[in-house]
Amino acid sequence: MAARRKPGHFSRMRHSRLTGLLFLCAVPSLAAAQARPSYRDPSRPVEERVSDLIGRMTVEEKFWQLFMIPGSLDDPTHDYSHGAFGLQVRGGDTTSARAHSARIDSIQHYFVERTRFGIPIIPFEEALHGLGAPNATSFPQAIALAATWDTSLMARVATAAARETRSRGIRDALSPVINIASDVRWGRVEETYGEDPVLSSQMARAFVAAFEHAGVIATPKHFIANVGEGGRDSYPVDLSRRQLEERFFPPFRASIVDAHARSVMSSYNSVNGIPSTQNRMLLTDVLRGEWGFTGFTISDAAATGGPTVLQHTEASTAMATKHALEAGLDVIFQSSWEQHRAYLDAFRRRLIADSVVDRAVAHVLRAKFELGLFEHPYANLDSAQYWNGRAEHRALAREAARASIVLLRNERGTLPLATTARRIAVIGADASEVRLGGYSGPGIAPVSILAGLRQRFGAAVQYAPGVPRVVTTYVAVPAAHLTAVDSGRSVRGLRAEYFDNITLAGVPRVARVDDHIDFHWTLGGPARGVTPDWLSARWSGKVTVPAAPKPVRIGVEGNDGYRLWIDGALVLDDWVKRSFGTRFATGTMKPGSTHDVRLEYFETSGNARVKLVWDAGVVDDREAKIADAVALAKRSNVAIVVAGIDEGEFRDRASLALPGHQEELIERVAATGTPTVVVLVGGSAITMSPWLERVGAVIDVWYPGEEGGRALADVLGGDYNPAGRLPITFPVSEGQLPLSYNHEPTGRGDDYLDLTGQPLFPFGFGLSYTSFEYSALAITPDSMAAVDAATLRFRVTNSGARAGDEVVQLYLHDVLATVGRPVIQLQGFQRIHLAAGEVRDVVFTIGREQLQLFDRDDRWVVEPGTFRVMVGSSSKDIRLRGTLTVR
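-> structure tokens emitted (887 positions)
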């Protein structure tokens, strides 16, 4: 451990020389030792140290050990004199790992040296697929790591990320996301390990174990289910105990019981009507009572107050705080220092029993003692510089990206690219743009797909940007083009009047100037006393059209219940409440002209949205861009169209098709007759029916990390044989959703009147440049007692001419059970490498863990009966089948 350094920017906060010596003496004097409190004595048991420190703390000091936020000491109005659980310390103006580490250390010095008890903070950060900070290695997104189906590779990636994280002094990673991706419309599928509890559990176990071993607390999230009906983020869920136990609990159980995660984050939504932050069944009965969890629980950001403003089950934030801690929540996570006041109120008013508060504080302090922060609170700056962005980590990022790439289609040997391909057209905005996925740092010199292909194929690569993912047909009218009169003077914006009724009646509750009209009021209204579910508003002033180059259409986007006047004429009248949409006035406004404008709006049921829009400055160059791409494809030997989706937190998708005009781009490029390869960039499923049969090959690269461009070039050029497998099901159409491979048997059939019930690409699917044969299945014994285990053995042969990886997958089905069982359920997998012609024996063990079910009496049991044992290359591609009897 590095020697103690000066605290830099915060040196003015240091104690006296004498106090400093008391902190630093390696061998204290007898008098000092006798005077030292127990919590300062590392030789004392942790529980004794925890109890001693809690006994000395005030209520306010206890509260701050239960409050975490992004922050620093830069704002002198923010008072941290009572301490804090921890801070998410961004790098500020610094970009190097060393500078970031020094910044964290300088803040840590304040808490260690300037607060009453010197309790260190736990610096925390996101580390979903690499530390979310500048100059840290960005590995492939979580869903891509799941697509490797390689837990040893996941462990190596997590170990590298944990080293980079720990070396900066960050001791808590708010990762991994281990929610089951039960609906691929959810915008956060990319952050997960997919739809299956077994695959997710094994990936979670590898990730968490690596971080905890490195001395960084892992925080699996979001406990327990973060996606609801319609694939919508944080929607309420109603789940039976058996659904929870068999599908949603396993990744969390594996993280806590097996990998010993010391923290858990709750979710925003409610579970069976109870907000997750207050769900005693989850936070206390299951987590601590059944799983023996001894760490600390934290809320998602701002979720502790959710019952007050979202679920409406609490009258005040103070009471929401009380009930959350009583249910088993420990740490309140908020987004800013100012927000602490509402939560501190519950502590100051003594609404929460001392025993409840002390229990929560004990969970936090125990972690701080176990981390060794009281003895070694600071980082080693040289270590930060050494570990972050190491060449080995960048090489590992490339290895992981290659392993995650899934080949979905490869007709007539389109791939790998022929060595005779001297003209390669690369088309699409995602080819030149590097997107690393949600909760990512910037990466270290990320390599785009275009750059990777140019490095591999040189001058053969020619580029056309094609069409963008997002099509803009209108924009909010900017403040620069709006004017109003306020207090006798002309100002930018429109005069706004807000009413606490829905009829614009009486005197406005609030009058002000809004610089532009683009509002979405959900949790709160536009001003104090005006709620988002019962309001009306009027905006008035003048709008000036740009001088060039064309006439402009003006309109409104939002919930209907609006009227728009231009120059005193009613041009839009949508005053009947019905839905959401965008409407434009039928006429246009001349370039350079100025007009009176008045917009009226009302809302009666919440989720108020209104935007004044026009099409000024919007250029529709789609046809020209597609024509350029088509021309390039015509003069090339092969066309590679890189297409992507947009998604993310609270960015769920109603349509799974490629957005914008990317489908048209693919179809017209393919129509040239040039062999076409489509490369998909995104973290979830994509529908492909309009264009799939027209292209030669389809590859899913997910968000492949900073080395993704080189990794894809390795695959396209044949230097690496793809072997990624889908961790989610790809549907033919959104109408099939939710669609998971491991559903229970239906009461009738799986199909629709106008569509199959089968997926476009099934869970576990992925192609290779070689072929594999399965044979010689043997189950020993084929009949056993419930307490025993059977050995499954079979043979895999690489029957092709190229070396490659195969992901062998073990599935089971309980033929006759007392409760409904999945039609097929993954119970094991192995990724193996075989040279051309090589034969390998593969072995699985089938025991209680694979055979058990959660019965009608809420017990985990292994029932006697017959189990169908299936081995294959995907959930649909079953190559071998046998039976196992449990007596």
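The two ends are 57 Å apart (CA to CA).
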